[in-house]
Amino acid sequence: MQKQPTVNALISPEGSLEILSNHEVSRLKDRSEGGLYQLFRQCALAVLNTGAETDDTKDLMEAYADFDIRLVPQPRGLKLEVVNAPAIAFVDGEMLRAIREHLFSVLRDIVYSNTISTSVVGFRKDNPEDLTNLIFHILRNARALQAGRSPDLVVCWGGHSISREEYSYSKEVGHQLGLRGLSICTGCGPGAMKGPMKGATIGHAKQRVKNGRYIGITEPGIIGAEAPNPIVNELVIMPDIEKRLEAFVRAGHGIIVFPGGVGTAEEILYLLGLLLHPDNADIPFPVVFTGLKENAEYFEMIDRFIRNALGDKAAEKYEIIIDDPVRVAQTMKKGIAEVETFRRAMQDAYHFNWMLKIDPVFQLPFEPTHESMLSLELHRDQPVHMIAANLRKAFSGIVAGNVKEEGIKQVEARGPFEISGDPVLLAPLEEMLAAFVAQNRMKLPGSTAYIPSYRIVSGGY
């Protein structure tokens, strides 16, 4: 990407976190591997780049290599100094209020998530209960959990690289959800993450909904490729992709999936892997796949892939609705009403789905490397949730190779990630990936031609 004009500025807090301890300030200034400076700088630059057309974290970091962000202690709290920040974040020399809020949300979440995991006695990064509690505390600290509020949060997943027509459709679905008083949570980026939020703002305005929520949940590795869109009014940064995914299903009350690429496929496999767990069989959780008439073939392909990999039982966990935003919204409204009835009967919280069972394989972070990608267990001789978990990891690795700085560097240095396994699983996988490439779902339109970050190889099965 081309570097745009830059601005130097001193920024006062907006929304949260005016006070930090000396230890927290020291960690944020620490540029060593164990410090938080590089993480803070990367996320802050992504937020300041909101509105720019890029989905390549490495390109963003290289284009603004001279960007710096510094903590400036003040008698009454804390300010941030930005040096060579993208001018797109400013109007007449003043930082946009939304971006200022997001900037301090970055500070809040990075400090908190890295403090609680090291300060809580007995906290274990491999303990499922501890990980779920960490997610709860991060969301609560961000004030994303509102006790007493009736269930109304629809999580919308879908691609950042979609056509104008698909974007308009996602916006109309959001409009219909907003007319029914439902709020929106997405991955906070462009495309199908922005459309539902934008549509919901109009629906909320028509119904005079004053407390509509537009929550964006992201993580450091992806935020540079999917900077928060301008509609997001609550930004939360989870430590990694696994905690981001768990935050979606714990905080949300239903999920709508629009057409997307490998990131969307990863989310689908994560969700189905959870819903197929026997302990979750009776927990209501509405899931709708939807798109235009032109997307019918896309969802037929997704459905075939799911049935082949996970069985027909997995397909019972979602409903496919084509080109009918009103029916999508009505289905979601009805499903969320069932969620409310169930949670009231079970005395479970409306704001956080404590009852949902999540196997540790879906919680522990997966680090995509050439070795870990090649060693994935992609075969049928394992429980169905493990098939979903390993396929999810394969898609996660491709996402890393496509848009995450570390993944891009690995692919540049050693070539594409190799994926091996049972041809019965890999043939449909290769077909779907080829379709994503052909439909320009791997990269934003207008960016450089997509070069695959993966290669399917014979697994000897």
TrEMBL record:
<dbReference type="Pfam" id="PF14793">
    <property type="entry name" value="DUF4478"/>
</dbReference>
<dbReference type="GO" id="GO:0005829">
    <property type="term" value="C:cytosol"/>
</dbReference>
<dbReference type="GO" id="GO:0008714">
    <property type="term" value="F:AMP nucleosidase activity"/>
</dbReference>
<dbReference type="InterPro" id="IPR037153">
    <property type="entry name" value="PpnN-like_sf"/>
</dbReference>
<dbReference type="InterPro" id="IPR027820">
    <property type="entry name" value="PpnN_N"/>
</dbReference>
<protein>
    <recommendedName>
        <fullName>AMP nucleosidase</fullName>
        <ecNumber>3.2.2.4</ecNumber>
    </recommendedName>
</protein>
<dbReference type="InterPro" id="IPR031100">
    <property type="entry name" value="LOG_fam"/>
</dbReference>
<feature type="domain" description="Pyrimidine/purine nucleotide 5'-monophosphate nucleosidase N-terminal">
    <location>
        <begin position="10"/>
        <end position="114"/>
    </location>
</feature>
<dbReference type="Pfam" id="PF11892">
    <property type="entry name" value="PpnN_C"/>
</dbReference>
<dbReference type="InterPro" id="IPR052341">
    <property type="entry name" value="LOG_family_nucleotidases"/>
</dbReference>
<dbReference type="Pfam" id="PF03641">
    <property type="entry name" value="Lysine_decarbox"/>
</dbReference>
<feature type="domain" description="Pyrimidine/purine nucleotide 5'-monophosphate nucleosidase C-terminal">
    <location>
        <begin position="336"/>
        <end position="457"/>
    </location>
</feature>
<dbReference type="InterPro" id="IPR021826">
    <property type="entry name" value="PpnN_C"/>
</dbReference>
<dbReference type="InterPro" id="IPR049788">
    <property type="entry name" value="PpnN"/>
</dbReference>
